[in-house]
Design goal:
Layout: H1 3-34, H2 41-64, H3 74-91, H4 96-118, H5 123-143, H6 145-148, H7 172-193, H8 197-214, H9 219-245, H10 255-268, H11 273-288, H12 300-314
């Protein structure tokens, strides 16, 4: 094949791939938008929780996949955001956008000192530090009873009002549309981040931090910035969790949530945002649906363990690494 033909084929393949991605995104968004019209209340509630958990997985992916910082501490900022939103909803306002912004802001502020400590380590030490941060947040939720109500949690949260002047969302389908709108907005923002020079610098830190430092990049500052951004995203997810559940307890800041979020990123494909969301859906359905079937009742953790083993061996690049043929393949000619 001539050079001109090779370049033309590459351009055609790139255009076809972009068109395929746009079509896939369109189909996925339409399917999510139409879900309340074909699914029952329980399924819609489950789908709302999956979307929230998907945002938490995206925040983990910003650290683990994009920056190379595997974390078990995002449940801390998820819990901070959830408790903040619950306190705002019960004591200040039921406006959803204000709950989201305040929860994300408080989570980012908490991430500043904790992140400053954590990013000074790498690898297993970083993982253990983030685990310790998560356990501290869980202990605070249990023991700070004047603020968190201890193990009883915060209940009596009023239905969310998305924007000033709108009505409260009492129906599951309406809450789902609110969660879906916020999910799509934050997911689009995270996707946009992936094509910026800042994201390229983060990938450089992930692949070869000493070289990035040698050519003048302030790697610690970059790592702290993305750490705080991931904390803010996790806090926003926590606020959405409160809008769906209308209840928050220390378990929402516990180790299980952090482990499931990291597992979702590994299964979905580290570095892929949509893979993280797909992994989150698979993990959540395995735990809460398959794990509750009569044949395997009480064995949800076992199923998750088997799922992880299968994913590691059969899908080394995760769900994002699966490539399905979209049409007939052409034989290569010379």
């Amino acid at each position: 094949m001539s050079p001109t033909g090779t370049i033309g084929a590459a351009r055609t393949a790139g255009t076809s791939g972009a068109a395929g991605r746009r079509l896939s995104v369109t189909v996925a968004v339409l399917a999510l938008a139409l879900a309340p019209f074909v699914l029952g209340p329980y399924a819609i509630g489950t789908l709302s929780r999956i979307l929230v958990f998907g945002l938490l997985a995206v925040s983990v992916n910003l650290l683990t996949g994009l920056t190379g910082l595997p974390t078990l501490g995002q449940s801390a900022y998820f819990g901070v955001g959830a408790y903040t939103a619950a306190i705002v909803a019960t004591r200040l306002t039921d406006i959803g956008i204000l709950q989201l912004l305040i929860a994300a802001g408080v989570s980012a502020l908490v991430a500043v000192p904790t992140g400053w400590l954590a990013i000074r380590a790498r690898g297993v030490v970083f993982l253990m530090l983030t685990l310790a941060i998560g356990e501290i947040a869980y202990s605070a939720a249990v023991n700070w009873k004047s603020l968190t109500n201890g193990t009883d949690g915060v209940s009596g949260i009023p239905p969310v009002v998305p924007l000033p002047g709108m009505s409260a969302l009492a129906l599951d389908g309406l809450v789902y549309f609110y969660v879906l709108a916020v999910f799509l907005l934050l997911f689009a923002a995270a996707s946009r981040l992936g094509s910026t020079p800042f994201a390229l610098a983060l990938r450089g830190i992930r692949d070869n931090e000493p070289r990035m430092r040698a050519i003048g990049y302030p790697t610690q500052r970059y790592a702290l910035t993305v750490y705080c951004g991931a904390g803010a995203l996790a806090g926003a997810a926590g606020a959405l969790w409160v809008s769906v559940q209308r209840f928050v307890s220390p378990g929402d800041a516990g180790f299980e949530i952090a482990a499931l979020a990291l597992l979702a990123v590994v299964i979905g494909g580290s570095g892929s945002l949509w893979g993280a969301c797909a992994g989150a859906a698979l993990v959540w359905l395995t735990r809460d649906y398959l794990g509750n079937l009569e044949a395997v009742a009480g064995r949800g953790p076992l199923l998750l363990g088997l799922l992880f083993v299968v994913a590691v061996y059969a899908l080394p690049r995760g769900l994002a690494g699966v490539r399905l043929p979209l049409g007939p393949t052409r034989k290569r000619t010379t």
